[in-house]
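Internal QA ticket QA-208
Title: Verify multi-chain structure generation after dependency bump
Assignee: T.L.

Test input:
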Amino acid sequence: MHDLAPLTALGHAAPWTDQIGGMAITERPQIALASVTARQGREPTCRQTLTTWLGDGPPPPGKALLRDPFSALWMGPDQWIVAADYDAHERLADELKAKLKQAASITEQTDAWVCFDVSGDRVVDLCERLCPAPARRMQTGDAQRTTVHQMGCFLVCLKQSEEMRFIGPRSSAGSLYHALVTAADAIV
Amino acid sequence: MTQANRVPGGQIDRSKTLKFNFDAKQYTGHPGDTLASALLANGIRLMGRSFKYHRPRGPLTAGSEEPNALVELRGGARQEPNTRATTTELYDGLWARSQNRLGSLRFDLLAINDRFSNFLTAGFYYKTFMWPAAFWEKLYEPIIRRAAGLGSLSLKADPDSYDKGFLHCDLLVIGAGPSGLMAALTAGRAGADVILADEDFRFGGRLNSETLSIADQPGADWAAGAVAELAGLPNVRLMPRTTVIGAFDHGIYSAVERVSDHLHSPDPGKPRQILWRIYSRDTVLCAGATERPIAFDNNDRPGIMLGAAVRTYVNRFGAAPAQRIALFTQSDDGHRTARDLIAKGIKVAAVIDVRKEAPRDGAYETLPGAQVVDTRGRMGLTFVEVRLPGGDTRLIECGALGVSGGWNPNVHLTCHQRGRPIWNNALSAFVPGESLPPGMLVAGAAKGEMSTAAALRSGAQAARKALGLKGRLPVLPEAEDADVTAPPFWYVQGAERAWLDQQNDVTVKDVKLSHQEGFRAVEHLKRYTTLGMATDQGKTSNLGGLAIMAELAGKSIPEVGTTIFRPPYTPVALAAFAGRAVGQDFHPTRKTPSHFWAKERGAVFVEVGNWLRAQWFPLPHETHWRESVDREVLGTRASVGVCDVTTLGKIDVQGEDAATFLNRVYCNGFAKLAVGRTRYGLMLREDGIAMDDGTAARLAEDHFVITTTTANAVSVYRHMEFVRQCLFPDLDVQLISTTEAWAQFAVAGPNARRVLQKIVDPEFDLSNEAFPFMACGSITVCGGLRARLFRISFSGELAYEIAVPTRYGDALIRRIMAAGAEFDIVPYGTEALGVMRIEKGHATGNELNGTTTALNLGMGRMVSKAKDSIGSVLSQREGLTAPDALHQVGLKPLNPDDTVPAGAHLMAATGPIDAAHDQGYVTSACYSPNLGHHIALGFLKGGAARLGEVLRLVSPLTGVETRVEVVSAHFIDPEGERLRA
Amino acid sequence: MIIDHPLLGPRDSAEFTYLGDASLIDRPDGMAETAAEAFYAYQYLRDNPAGLHRELWYHEAGDRSWLVVTRDTVTHEIISVELARDVARARGRSR
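Actual output:
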């Protein structure tokens, strides 16, 4: 076992959390991510294998599959991001490659992203200050790419009108966090 | 006596009193007042001085179309010039100051301009200030600059914050007068997602200013009831204080919400304003209409205002502009005003009606067929001079005059996408044209449906049409349905100093001058006279000017045309467009994995695009950056250094055809690159110009990781996806960016291997035989952490780049530093990185500058002719392969103390110094601590054959002329022995 | 503008990067005898219609698909949106 200590995207040993009015903004570093892109002519095999792996079909455009132990987001044509608990599946990319073999190209994406969960009864108002995604109309399980202050993010509706997950570029975590907190201050 | 001009009623809260300050005097008003209504209630008619002539002015209107009553609102850093007093909500402690006067508002020294009006007519600056030429810069321009403009800026940083926001709806209703309220009710009751926006702080539009009834209630009460119902519908969003400023493509609208402007200052954390981007499926424009004045001599005195504005002040705000008011009208509107005044106990001096068959009312005097030909009262109206039908004149005493010249539908937003309005003869006004922005309908007065009943009907119809509701219109509340049309009356014959555009001081005389001088097309009229170019954009003056030009030109008004309307509908603070993207937040900040560690070590950072990179790591005793950078360079080449190179783009390329694909995008060959090997790659643009360079590492048959420069990471990825999807869609290749996912550090110097051997797990052999120059592979470090190792070198030293998942980057660099301590490892930043690569002659963005080719870079032979790759064909064209093409060379100053500034040009040793004799230019330069003098890279015509030649280095702009020698670009270790150690 | 992505539905054009004429898909064969002439035309000759234009947009802030959009350059009306990959294949592009 290696002895290197990880740092969160915000640069701390432990994940950050904030309470602003009735809203909670929580950093979630313990999410392993891997990209799965079907190879040419192997799309049905890739889909089938993923279905078995996830316990349900890989999500269509605009959707997320929110399940235990694996979730997935649609990323592009025949392309998904698979998520799992980091401690249990730190080597998620390797696990998926072993299963999918030549049917797909896999990359480790865990540390390309930072995840912030925002919950509270004004979370939709917050989203309306931050990005053009139609947050008010999003239902649990809806997910889409959007932009927050020039940062390309995923917005995942974990619970309609109550909890949203922002997945943004890790190197800009400080800016994304600042955007969330500033918007929360503006609306409470 | 305070508030001497208050009259009963109005939508103000008399139970609360607000204190405010205007021009250093204290006044009182009530919640619900505007600054203008409160001033009028206090007997103040004088609120400003005009732009050019500094004539005393008062409010012409009661709304956002106001040209005169512009004030500086708030002091200190929040001072806002050119704020309309007519739309400024009164709050306790409001502080405002009049503008555009030298001295005081009453005693303005620049009023002398009015006496020189003959010399200050339209376009006077085209004919004056020409001679002597020298006077322009020193005398005329400073004077004009001081005199120009209206209000002043504080020049302090804006302490407020501004948000942006995004909304979606099925129906956007713009304007909350009777048609807008009805449209919103119709759509809201049907369950649609509705947004109802109005610039005013109170919904209701003209219903708040008129004494008309709807369904046996006062119009204002009906409006309040409608608002209450809408507020209770969860699918309706009410947005008062929100101006929809522009109609953009495909149902996208822009709106500014004034969140805090009606408060003394914003609550902590709250924005002052929000710029909303509204995505609407359909829109109903219910923007109402704006009244137009009549032009007559001296029609601009304080107290002279639009008739509908008189009704607004009296009915909505309970403030009389004067105790004795005359009306000048071309329709029944003036009589409506008279009746409303009498109902409030205000004396009506007379109704001067241009129509011979004017209605008569026992309660006040009517003068049919009469016209106002002049006025008295410089600081405030005292008399109007009326010409009666017989030719006699009569002086009528009054403190205010309400002028009613008809109504102009507010068609502006219908024209934001190149639409033109069409002329409606019955209304003598422009109405929305045929071509509306897709998805937009118009209702109410904005459409030319002028009565209250017509407004309610058309609002309901438009909403139903937008939602696709079929069947009969439901029963609508009863309201008046009067025909308001009357023959137009634009100006009094013989009028000269009759104002059209009161803000830019444009008169009837100026329009005549414009015609006389040949500026007759509507666009020329506008620009020659500046009619309609002020902050009010001619809302009360454009049509008057057009009408006069039409008469002079012998054309109809529609033949003269109309200028285009553009966003924003009313002025918007620039800060609202910036939103939160100001100062530190102008763009996102990207931090490298070693950022926090570098900060601890006191690194100086530099912005590289959005990234912050350590530029150098000064030691406490170092006082100049050269000390740090020289030390970092020397330390790395002498022993070992470490640098964070995470920012360079990393693109993961996988698939059966990965190698084939890379062979298409790089100009050099990749098909046969062995697994476990890395190769330098050069990408060309299709036109043959060098685009980017980097390395491609083959981790497996079907798996490469390629690098790009930091600056081009995004554009190279975009290009590769273009090639993959659009050019070769059947190649089995998949791409994804992994720039962020992996922390990557360069470890360089003679002791690099020794340091890494303490980090890399022992089962991986790092000997030169097992892991030679350009090897690559997946490894583990520090007892099992997955990592990747690449033996590539930018510095020219024995070097590696080691990558771990980003969350471990901080721990890894600390471990590398600890492992390197015995070798005096030195962290180095972008400056030292730059010095070392210049010493080695490695090209970067300075050399790949968008005009240079592989040939110029000395890599001409790298462009394979044996395969088809992007850019290879056009790289061979004549223009790019001339015998004297630029070649990259090294440059060394003859005098070792000389610098070699980047950007300087190269000239032959003798001969003229000019563009025609230009031999090339310097691209990168630095001091080389290894060589002890400055060096540079540059491009020189036919440079490959000119080694040893002495050239002149010139920078005429900065007065530099020195001598340099052309040398090999590879200053250090040209044979590459250190690389391969 | 709003671009109706074939897979994702209506998206703000701000999410995209514009490249240019969709004729860029028809890249000539670089190894052919007449390659130079063909590439001059491919790279530099363009129609510039006031009207319908087929053009390439890249969904940079979205799914990174390239799209072929048929847009009226005068009115900005967008008539059709297709995945560029499908258009490329239909035009005979392959390996």
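Spot checks passed. Chain A touches chain C through 13 residues (CB under 8 Å).
Status: verified.
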